[in-house]
Specification:
Elements (H helix, E strand, L loop, with lengths): L2 H10 L3 H15 L2 H4 L8 H10 L5 E4 L4 H11 L7 E4 L6 H8 L8 E4 L2 H9 L3 E5 L6 H5 L5 E3 L10
Parallel strand pairs: 1-2, 3-4, 4-5
Length: 163
């Protein structure tokens, strides 16, 4: 059961039909310009990306968005699009794991998935790479700890590369 389904069922007693309706409305709403403009970078984000670029890391965005063009537009508007080798968007057709395995042919022990959800940690485990959970999302330490990430940090500025 996904985190959203679990929260809606356990805390709000939503039925499966109500959860599906909520999920559809929510997914359509969060990818509108109005809501995407609410996302802001942390002050240190570009500095961290600059440092990783200088060190020749290949960076990818892997997102479970349904609209690839909106994801591209948001990254361009934030001024970070060019930091990434590729932007991988599931578009509700593949899981993050499937998308990564399809696009990145050779994963190795140096690869790491950094994310702020339990699903990100599960994805890393599914494709046998390291996972770093960041607390800068809406999940707290206890929730993320339950997924057994390799490392939990407050935000990406706390990650010391190379790992």
């Amino acid at each position: 059961m996904s985190d959203h389904r679990k929260i809606l069922a356990e805390y709000f007693s939503y039925t499966d039909i109500q959860i599906d309706l909520f999920q559809t409305k929510w997914m359509n709403l969060i990818e509108t310009d109005e809501y995407l403009l609410l996302d802001k970078l942390f002050d240190f984000t570009k500095n961290v990306l600059d440092n990783l670029k200088v060190q020749n890391y290949s960076l990818y965005v892997v997102t479970a968005r349904q609209n690839k063009m909106m994801a591209y537009r948001q990254l361009l508007a934030m001024g970070i699009f060019d930091y990434f080798k590729e932007i991988l968007v599931t578009e509700n057709t593949k899981s993050k794991a499937q998308l990564i395995l399809d696009k990145i042919q050779k994963l190795n022990e140096n690869d790491v998935l950094i994310g702020d959800t339990g699903m990100d940690i599960k994805t890393a485990k599914e494709i046998n790479i390291k996972s770093i959970a960041v607390l800068s999302g809406f999940r707290n330490r206890e929730v993320l700890k339950g997924y057994n990430p390799d490392l939990i940090v407050d935000d990406i500025n706390c990650i010391k590369f190379p790992l």
